[in-house]
Amino acid sequence: MNDDTTTDRNLADDAVPDCNETIRELDIFLDGEISEAQRDAIRSHLDGCMDCLGAFDFHAELKAVIATKCQNDEMPPDLLSRIERCLAIDFDGDGEIG
Ligand SMILES: [Zn+2]
Predict the structure, then answer these.
(1) What domains lie within the chain, and their CATH numbers?
(2) N or C: which end of the chain has fewer CB within 10 A?
(3) For residue 89, how far is its CA from the centre of ligand 1 (angstroms)?
(4) How many A from CA of 22 to the centre of ligand 1?
(5) How much distance in Å is there from the Cα of 81 to the middle of ligand 1?
(6) Element (H, E) at 67
(7) Long-range contacts of 48-52 (CB under 8 A, 24+ apart)
(8) With a cut of 70, which residues of the chain have pLDDT below it?
(9) What is the SS3 assignment for 45?
(10) Who contacts 98 (Cβ-Cβ below 8 Å, separation ≥6)?
(11) Whole-angstrom Cα distance, residue 73 to residue 16?
(12) How far does the centroid of ligand 1 lie from the alpha carbon of residue 78, in Å?
């Protein structure tokens, strides 16, 4: 059974991740919880892929805005929970989504 479009789920050190892989790693990337090899791979993918670069910018900006609002206590907790659930990102760093 090798005629499937096989996706190698292993992110090898010298492999450039595809778009889906890159988007999935973005949040980890932004949190800095990623190996240097993975970071390099994502950076080189972002260099050549406007789609992912756009998504990356959006994530980074959104995350910065929300982090600031959290710190300034401008964000109602239930709103933050909803945003976390929508984006599946743990913005307030409490280890859970929502
Ligand atoms: Zn891409």
Answers:
(1) 19-87 (1.10.10)
(2) N
(3) 20
(4) 6
(5) 28
(6) helix 50-71
(7) 49/19, 49/22, 51/19, 52/19, 52/22, 52/23, 52/26
(8) 1-16
(9) helix
(10) 81, 82, 84, 85
(11) 39
(12) 32
Tokens of 39: 């970071």
Report the amino acid identity of residue 32. G
pTM listed for this prediction: 0.52
List of residues 6+ apart from 58 with CB closer than 8 A:
none
The amino acid at residue 2 is N
| Spacing, Cα 55 to ligand 1 middle (Å) | 9
- In 3D, which of 25, 95, 19, 98 has the Cα closest to residue 59? 25
Query: Which residues lie closer than 8 Å to 7 by C-beta, 6 or more apart?
Result: 18
Residues in the chain: 98
Distance (Å) from CA 49 to ligand 1 centroid: 5
Tens of pLDDT, residues 42-69: 888 889 999 889 988 888 888 888 888 8
